Amino acid sequence: MTLAEKAYLSLRNDIVRGDLKPGGALKMADLSARYDMGFSPLREALSRLQGERLVISESLRGFRVSELSLAEFEDALRTRLVIETEALRLSLRLGGDDWAAQLVAATYALKLQAERSGGDIWELETRHHAFHRALLSACGSRWMLDFFEQLYMATDRYRLPVLVGGAGGGGRDLVAEHAALADAALARDETLANRLLVQHYEATAATIRARHGA
Amino acid sequence: MTLAEKAYLSLRNDIVRGDLKPGGALKMADLSARYDMGFSPLREALSRLQGERLVISESLRGFRVSELSLAEFEDALRTRLVIETEALRLSLRLGGDDWAAQLVAATYALKLQAERSGGDIWELETRHHAFHRALLSACGSRWMLDFFEQLYMATDRYRLPVLVGGAGGGGRDLVAEHAALADAALARDETLANRLLVQHYEATAATIRARHGA
DNA sequence: AAACCCGAGATTTTCGAAAATCCTTGTTGC
DNA sequence: GCAACAAGGATTTTCGAAAATCTCGGGTTT
């Protein structure tokens, strides 16, 4: 793996996790020291992240971590719903045994991690991401999957602080929600699966809104 | 504007127009000579274009213009339809007088250019792009607009050779199609506008499919 | 004859300094 | 006192060479 790729993954990770604060300036000298590499791979990574809206740059004034705002969150979430709705529908139609088995596995792994008291929050997050990816993975559209990944990262920046702060948020049972969604998907019940997905999003949106107001 | 931005725009333009051939290797030395700049801004631009799927890179083997394939085209087009369907619906609900006026202007400019015999094909293409952008511009979602732009470029790579080769393709009346779509949009007829959009896509897909088979 | 290895040349990737630009601060002129 | 301006420092952006890696062909071995 090239340094440029490492820079991309490291920066992306640090931004999504909030280690690099929204609005904060990303000075080349600092980054060079932090990640122990020259300017070239860093610039390359930053300009890629700009395309994913995780950083912004003003000409000749360098890069900054992009700001968080409720409006931006709502936009990303509803766009994600548009994409996921269609991708889910396609997955239910096209998914074979491998897809079903992977979905069962992802659901189970998510449950295990969620029920492990004192478990790592980042590990849980990885499982959550994997679940949603598994759900859509059979849609057969690389564009939709790519967009899903981008939007997932964009919305995750808002959800992670909530996760780190309090528990699940608003008395939700994350495991039950996802298990129900998986069951509907495995039963190929498009209508139910879609309704559960929408509810899942509504609940997430409500949690973030509440947090943002507080 | 920085050199990196110029490199991005130039490369993107040259790839979409087909001046840089699909599958062709993009050697740094060649690009450096062609665009008269060093490696840094070029690499930055290429890695951005990789995110938009216009180029691909293998580690330590440089960049290539991404290949064209019918499957890839169909995927991009149907994803575009998912995004545009929703963005169109939102635009019809949210669009004010400015949006309506801009749409009328874009429709008229498209018509003028299309009817100018012997007109520049690239100018026509710019107007076509502007029309579709105007149609969706009031949707209020930056994510959807961004995705639309990406997908438009991805699909345009397939449509442009057809435009350059023969005329409109398959006896279609492009002007009438777009005018009808604009009328439905201005009348806020969501159902009709959506149907026309779907038809527009079907026709485009049919043209490309025929061309690809031939 | 086929497979393998080695080295020269070609190419990508990275670095660090140079050039260009921006920001701050102190000074001048009104 | 205050605005305009200029010098100096900080920072970004770009370049070109160095380092790292890959590719291709010839020669050797089995």
Automatic annotation (TrEMBL), chains A, B:
Residues 1-68 form the HTH gntR-type domain. InterPro entries: GntR_C (IPR011711), TF_FadR/GntR_C (IPR008920), Tscrpt_reg_HTH_GntR (IPR000524), WH-like_DNA-bd_sf (IPR036388), WH_DNA-bd_sf (IPR036390). Transmembrane segments: none annotated. The keyword DNA-binding applies. It comes from the Bacteria. It holds the Pfam family GntR. One of its GO terms (molecular function) is DNA binding. SUPFAM superfamilies: GntR ligand-binding domain-like, Winged helix' DNA-binding domain. This is FCD domain-containing protein. The lineage of its organism: Bacteria, Pseudomonadati, Pseudomonadota, Alphaproteobacteria, Rhodobacterales.
